[in-house]
Design a protein that fits this description.
Number of helices: 4
Mean pLDDT: 81
Radius of gyration: 19 Å
Distance between the termini: 32 Å
Shape: elongated
Helix content: 25-40%
Order of helices and strands: EHHEHEHEEEEEEEEEEE
Largest sheet: 6 strands, mixed
Number of strands: 14
């Protein structure tokens, strides 16, 4: 979704206008997930977040990500994300960049963040949580050795098998997605439950 902002208006006027337009058209949009592009004027990171909040607070639209068309800013953001992931992995977990392909296995003694896909036939196991910044199509086992508080999170889930602690769920068709957008799997009453991830996906990085 593209929103073109009037460069002549004050930011407060823009914010009020965005809130009003999405409030008035909330029924039209319904419950959808979108990527957002903001054009027409320069915005600070704080102003961008305020616009996203205005949209989500006044409609059922869920903004999954903000697409930045400034190549230099995209590069800086990617560098900052990678640096943060490195800091997290050095403290409490592990981070792996790249796809896990068929017959490949990744094991972690703590939690793990994977920047890529877990392909059909690949397997990832962790004593803690598993966060996949891509699609889970293979097998994932979090909470090895009985950690029932562990979770598995992925941008897209179409797995062959999910295990958390001693509970497991098997799926016959890895091409079938369990839902649209980011999903979270967790242990509940002796079974594994899978739900859409409603909050900002990157806020889940605190899990590791």
């Amino acid at each position: 979704m593209n929103i073109i902002l009037d460069p002549e208006c004050t930011f407060d006027e823009i914010l009020q206008s965005v809130a009003a337009k999405f409030r008035e058209s909330a029924r039209f949009w319904g419950n959808v997930q979108m990527a957002l592009i903001l054009e027409g004027r320069e915005l600070t990171a704080t102003e961008e977040l305020q616009i996203i909040d205005a949209i989500m607070e006044n409609s059922a639209v869920e903004i999954l990500c903000l697409i930045d068309q400034d190549a230099s800013r995209m590069e800086r953001c990617e560098k900052a994300l990678n640096q943060k992931l490195m800091e997290l992995s050095s403290c409490t977990g592990q981070f792996y960049r790249g796809d896990l392909c068929r017959a490949e296995t990744l094991e972690s003694e703590a939690s793990v963040v994977i920047i890529g896909d877990v392909q059909h036939g690949a397997r990832v196991t962790a004593k803690g949580n598993i966060v996949i910044l891509g699609e889970l199509k293979g097998s994932a086992h979090a909470g090895v050795f009985g950690n029932e508080d562990a979770v598995i999170v992925a941008l897209e889930m179409s797995p062959l098998q999910i295990r958390i602690a001693s509970a497991a769920r098997h799926y016959k068709d890895s091409r079938r997605r369990l839902g649209k957008g980011p999903m979270i799997a967790f242990y509940e009453n002796g079974e594994i439950s899978v739900r859409p991830l409603k909050k900002d996906f990157f806020s889940m990085l605190h899990l590791i």
